[in-house]
Amino acid sequence: MQHPAPAASVLAAVLSCLPAAQEQDHHQPQRRLEFGHPVSGVLPSEAEARQAAPAYTWTGAADATVTVFVESYDFDASFELRTGTGERVARAGGGGIGTDARHVVQTRAGTTYVLTVAAEDGGNGEFRVRIERGEPPLPTGT
Question: pLDDT at residue 12 above 70?
């Protein structure tokens, strides 16, 4: 008889990376997010975006506070966060430093999250997405 994994093992992997749920648009390229591993991408022009907007997924392994960041020097970053079943969790723009977006969310164990990157000003270019445990403080000026 196998015993369930110890709680410490489950908690050590606060988020496990799983594909997005079936309800999502299969034409969107989707990448997995992990704590401590920023992912770089390119937001396409508006014409290209109609075909494929960048999307990123993760599944909560435990109820937790998570801070989501989208950072860009090229455009005024924003994002929308939904569950794998389509429920809107958050929309963020301008919550970070400069052109970056930042939002703190409460994630639920076993729930898949889908993050879609966008631009507040219709811009495009390079960006970086990352997730952090808890609520890191905003950087202070020098």
Answer: no
The answer to whether the beta carbons of residues 109 and 78 sit under 8 Å apart is: no
> How far from the centroid of its chain's Cα atoms is residue 103's Cα?
10
Residues 20-38: pLDDT tens digits?
A: 333 334 344 578 888 889 9
C-beta of residue 33 within 8 angstroms of C-beta of residue 129: yes
What DSSP element (H or E) covers 3? none
Closest CA to 63 of 114, 129, 10: 10
3-class secondary-structure state, position 8: helix
> Letter for the amino acid at 22?
Q
Higher pLDDT, 115 or 96: 115
Neighbours of 126 (CB within 10 A): 13
Question: What's at 87, amino acid-wise?
Answer: E
Select from 136, 135, 133, 137 the least CA-distant residue to 12.
Answer: 133
Arithmetic mean of pLDDT, 105-118: 94
HSE-CB for 93 with a 13 A CA cutoff? 14
Rounded Cα gap, residues 63 and 85, in angstroms: 18
